[in-house]
Design a protein that fits this description.
Layout: E1 18-22, E2 33-37, E3 41-43, H1 50-58, H2 99-114, H3 133-141, E4 192-198, E5 222-225, E6 241-244, E7 253-254, E8 258-260
Parallel strand pairs: 4-7
Antiparallel strand pairs: 1-2, 3-8, 4-5, 5-6
Length: 262
């Protein structure tokens, strides 16, 4: 934790503005799409940990405060407590969290850092938010279109996947050789990670304006990236995509955050 009691976020190296190719899936007919990154941004170096999320849960102005959920859904179901952490280690990814929980966490932490309350429609201005899908993929693949964040060939020693044999989540950051081109870790395996976006087949029509969830509504399926501790190599590639309902809660799903950009 930081000196002020807030979750201390370690950041990847800055990802510079430019034009990047995304979604060129191996063994498919998908064609890469070009995305222009207008401003520098950074992903958190690791997924949000159990300890970091517990600060949000335990803060009297955190999880229980209605304002972080305002506008997220017409139902109250997403305001229920997250699922019980299956692997209760402080430095493991927080799993069993929904997209709603991840969004509320980012909104709360943005307020903690600035003292400002942000509307959902201002998400591009939040100091801390969920990454848009293309931001996540660029951070994982870099400019050379890596199949895995660490290179072109799968290596069970460079990320926590089914082949690694751990059989559960692992402490974040221990697979140093699995770093992405910008120094982000755990982008292949450990836990799937929620992105901000509503799912679009083959990126078709996906927005790039920093409010990626708005066009399809918050109850539409959301993007998951990166694979998990129980996935085979194909599910842990940098370009592999999946999705689920935003209230989905699983022991192989967590999230990381982003700052800047959009």
């Amino acid at each position: 934790m930081g000196a002020d009691g807030l979750p201390a976020i370690d950041w990847s190296e800055p990802i510079p503005p430019g034009v990047y190719a995304v979604d060129h899936e191996v063994e498919s007919d998908n064609q890469p799409r070009e995305y222009e990154v207008p401003d520098v941004y950074q992903l958190s170096k690791y997924p949000v940990t159990y300890a970091q999320f517990e600060v949000f849960i335990n803060d009297p102005e955190g999880f229980a405060a209605a304002r972080w959920w305002d506008g997220l859904s017409a139902s109250d179901g997403h305001k229920s407590a997250p699922g019980d952490q299956r692997f209760k280690y402080r430095n493991h990814p927080r799993e069993n969290v929904s997209w709603y929980h991840a969004m509320a966490y980012c909104r709360w932490l943005s307020w903690c850092l600035t003292g400002k309350y942000y509307e959902l429609e201002q998400i591009g201005e939040w100091p801390v938010r969920l990454p848009m899908e293309y931001e996540w993929e660029i951070a994982a693949r870099g400019t050379d279109g890596r199949i895995y964040p660490y290179g072109g060939e799968f290596d069970a020693a460079k990320g926590n996947t089914k082949e690694t044999g751990i059989g559960q989540t692992s402490a974040v950051g221990i697979f140093l050789a699995g770093a992405s081109p910008y120094g982000a870790l755990d982008m292949s395996g450990n836990v799937w990670e929620w992105c901000q976006d509503v799912w679009h087949d083959n990126y078709e029509g996906a927005p790039t304006d920093g409010s990626a969830w708005v066009d399809g509504g918050d109850q539409e399926r959301k993007v998951l990236r990166g694979g998990s501790w129980y996935d085979v190599p194909v599910g842990c590639r940098s370009a592999h995509r999946d999705r689920d309902a935003p209230d989905g809660i699983y022991d192989g799903v967590g999230f990381r955050v982003v700052c800047g950009g959009a």
